[in-house]
Amino acid sequence: MEKGNPLQSRYDRRVRRLLFNVLTAISLVLWISILGLWVQGYYGQIGYISRSDNSNRTFQNVRGGFQYIHVFTPSGMPLQNSSIDHGWYFGKAWDAVISKPHLGFGIASETQNDLRVTAILIPAYALFIVFLIAPITWISFRSTEIRRRRRVRAGQCMVCGYDLRATPDKCPECGAVSPNAKISD
Question: Is this model's pTM higher than 0.70 or not?
Fold first, then answer.
C-alpha cells in the first residue's frame, strides 16, 4: 500500500477541521434561531408567504413547531388576493392546522372544489436537537484535543494519563507508544 504525501494529509486535515468549524458555527446560529422562534411561537407568529396566480406557499412558526402550507388550484382559478404577494408577515399565535400530529410531526393533504391544500408540521424540538448535534460533537472533539495536548506537555501517556518521565518511550501501564518515542530501524 502506497503512503500519501504527508503535507497533503496535513492540508486535508486542516481543510476538514476548518469545514467542520464553519458548519458547527452555522449549526449553532440555526440552533439559537430555532430556540428563539420556538419560544416566540407561543406569543405571536412570524411567517413567510409566496403567492402566484394559482398557488400560495406559506412557512410559519406555530405553537410548538413550524408548518408549511401549500394551497394550489390546478385549474388556474386565482386564489384570493391579499395585501402581501410575497414577504414576511407577523400575526397572533396560531395552533397548527394539523389536528392530531404524531410526536409533533404531521402531514395532511386535502382536495375540495378543485382546491388542493397540503400542510406539513415539524416540531421545534426535532430541529432543536438536530442543530445541537454539531456543537456537541465539536465540544467533545475539542475537549479531547485539549486533554491530549495537556498530557503530552506534562509528560503523561495520551491514552491513560500515566506519568512517563521514567519511561518516555512506552507506557508501562497500558503499553501505548509515546508520540515522542525514538523509533529505531
Answer: no
